[in-house]
Amino acid sequence: MVVPEPGLPTAVTIYEVGARDGLQNEKALVPVEVKEQFVRRLLAAGLPVVEATSFVHPTWVPQLADAAELMSRLGADGVDLPVLVPNERGLDRALELGLRHVAIFGSATETFARKNLNRSYDEQFAMFEPTVARALASGMDVRAYVSMCFGDPWEGAVPLDQVVRAGVRLLEMGASQLSLGDTIGVATAGHVTALVAALVDAGVGVDRLALHFHDTYGQALSNVQAGLRAGVTTYDASAGGLGGCPYAESATGNLATEDLVWLLTGLGIDHGVSLDALVATSTWMAGHLGRPSPSAVVRALGHGG
Ligand code: HMG
Ligand code: MG
Question: Which of 49, 66, 71, 292 has the most CB atoms around its CB within 10 Å?
Answer without folding.
Answer: 71
